[in-house]
What does this fold into?
Amino acid sequence: ESLGSQSPKVPIAPSCAGVVGRRPQEAEARPVGENCVQPIVPRSGELFTAADIDTFMDSLGDSKSNAKEGGGAAKLVVPQIVEDRSKLTSNFGDVANDFFRDHKMEVPTETELTKETRGSSSFHVPERRGLRDQINAMDSWLEEDMSARDKLGDRSATAIKAHAAVRPVSTAELLEQQPVSNKCVAGENDCLTKLDELKRCKKLGQVASPLTLKALAQQAKPLFPGLPLEKLVQSLRLFASARYQDHDLYLRILGEIPVQVRGISPEMLTTCLRVLWRIRLHEETYVELLSMEAMNMIRAKRKPAARAPRRPGPKPAPLVEGEIQPAPPASPPPEAPAPFSPMQLIHIGNSLTRLNAKHHTRFMDVFQEQLALAIPRMTQEECELV
It folds into this structure.
């Protein structure tokens, strides 16, 4: 009667009477038509029992049969019921509160339950439309940039061709566009000519100024990488004859010789060794290079002697009284040294000795063999120089 007096306009189904009597604190279900949905709560305690599950399944079967009989007009509305957890866990709350009070700790407040329905999902697929739009925009910008670059390159190439076709060329520009090699050749010839003049002045007793020699050296240093081997050796000889003391200059000249050493002549090789001895430049690298090249040149010119087959000689004929015995055949003339002359061999030997060079055994064997061939052809003055 109390329930009827509180809500006289809402009829209570007979199936809901027991539930309302057990759980007065729960929210009332809003029936649609003649059906009423019971809240899903355990009858006693916090856990569902087998009897609770059977009752819940029976109520679902009754509601489905009623819905079919009503022709689909009646619809079940699942109410949003919020339990009062404080009463379900009354004993736990009392124990927890006593624990916090005994330890002088703050009692935590009750958290509000969310009002979301049980069927709602917390997972949402992220929206990627904005990122896709940005990627498409960047692709379009790159395509426009590449097309603009291509157009700009075509325009610049066309403009350069048109300017080159229309632009007149003056005579002065034609003279400036002459090969740089002509200027280099002129500088080389000028430098060598000045060095020859200094050499002639030295023979006349005139001493060259150190400033003049330094200026010539500064002028010649950039020209060495492009000089042929003959002019390199000539520059080395002229600077040494002028008594110019600058080892950096001589090392620059010698540094270009190994590249062209295969085309060196016996005269140039002898000159290089004599200049090294004159300027007292004990560089083992270049001394060994020149000595080994001299050995290779001697080996290339030396004729290999054919070895005669070993055969037993004929038996001597018996001597007849009064017969004249023929003279033995003359020995062949000794082989001439090649490709170095006796004087060049003397200069090579003296230069290497004064430079305190460490000779290889192969070089010494070949050089002594050539020197032995040259000794019979030496004059008295040449023999005194050995």
